[in-house]
Each structure stands twice: as structure tokens, then as C-alpha cells.
Design a protein that fits this description.
The complex is a heterodimer.
Chain A lengths: L3 E4 L2 E4 L4 E8 L5 E7 L6 E7 L2 E5 L6 E7 L2 E7 L7 E8 L8 E2 L3 E5 L1
Parallel strand pairs in A: 2-11
Antiparallel strand pairs in A: 1-3, 3-8, 4-5, 4-9, 5-6, 7-8, 9-10, 9-11
Chain B lengths: L2 E3 L4 E5 L4 E3 L2 E3 L5 E7 L5 E7 L5 E3 L5 E5 L4 E6 L8 E8 L8 E2 L3 E6 L1
Parallel strand pairs in B: 2-12
Antiparallel strand pairs in B: 1-4, 3-9, 5-6, 5-10, 7-8, 8-9, 10-11, 10-12
The chains are: A mainly beta, B mainly beta.
Amino acid sequence: DTEVTQTPKHLVMGMTNKKSLKCEQHMGHRAMYWYKQKAKKPPELMFVYSYEKLSINESVPSRFSPECPNSSLLNLHLHALQPEDSALYLCASSQERVQAGYTFGSGTRLTVV
Amino acid sequence: AQSVTQPDIHITVSEGASLELRCNYSYGATPYLFWYVQSPGQGLQLLLKYFSGDTLVQGIKGFEAEFKRSQSSFNLRKPSVHWSDAAEYFCAVAPYSSASKIIFGSGTRLSIRP
């Protein structure tokens, strides 16, 4: 299995809702990432997990809450989002160091209404 | 300041023509270098990578890139483009100082003229 699987592919949520994005990989990668990508912009790093521990938080607002239950799973819990949080959310995984590059999922297209 | 720059926002080439996409980086030491491609609404796919050795690297889909230390560049090339190559291309770097973090350039959108 050489894929990163993200669910759901599309999500529409209200500003008072709580929802979660899910990411799964079975490549034995020990680092996992959340990126946010606005239209016509490059991906921006949000969080890095290394060996199931949060190692980088790029000053992301607390309405985004990451969770890594095990080495294969990465969740992003969403609460009280704003319309400007609408974006493509990408999950990626890699070996402990990134010399081999990331493997990306196809993303979750999030719309906040 | 550390940065990665893609000077061309949008490039249009004719099908069958050659392609070169530019990428320049500014780091204290040679970082890990990557090129990714993204089709609309999709995730990113790794085309090729460089971190040492031969400065001309081969990737998937017929792409290659050349690392030039003197110019701090890592340009992507393809001898003959196909309509299916139309996409967004991102150059990316992972600094040695933060080996678990990849930073992306602003991207170059490639259009193919029939």
C-alpha cells in the first residue's frame, strides 16, 4: 500500500459545527503532516507529527485540533471555524526525515458556511 | 532570509515543445530539493528529488531537473510536453536545519497549447 487516504473528500460545515478530517497510511511512515491550501496558493504547513507526537505547530488557531491515535492515523478536529478557513486540507506522510519526500493524500475540500 | 522562488506564475507551451520551469532557493547550505505536480482539486505528486550526488536527476513522467549550486537553482525540464502535463508545479525545499519540514514555492501553472 503506497497511498495516503483522506476522508471525507468534501465537507460543508456551519460555523457552529464540530467535524473531523481523517488521514490514514500503511507505509510504515513515522512522520505525518497537515497542510492547508487556499485556491491558487501553495500548501502551508499546519502540523507535524513525528512518532505520534506533535513536533511542529505552525501557530495554528486552536479551532484546529490535531490528533494522532496511532502511527497509521492522523485526525484533524474542527470546531467553530470561520468562512476563511475554507480550503483544501492535505495530509502527507514521510519517513522520519524527508529525503524521500512526502506522499500526499488527495485532500479534503472544506467549505465553511 | 530563507526562501524558495518560482519566478514564473503561468507558462503556456505548445504540445510537443520543450519545457523548463525555474526554481531558485536561498539557504545557507544545500537543502533537500523537490518538484511536485498538482492536478486541479488533487493532492501533490512527487516528480523527483535531489539531496546529493549527480546534479541531473531523473523523475517520473519523463521529467528531469538539474541542480546548479553556483546559481542556487533547481530547474525542471521535459523535452516534449503532452496535454496531460497541464497542471500546477511546485518546487519545494527541506532545509537541513528542519529536516521534517518541506516548504513550497508559490507554484507555476502550466498550460498546454494544442
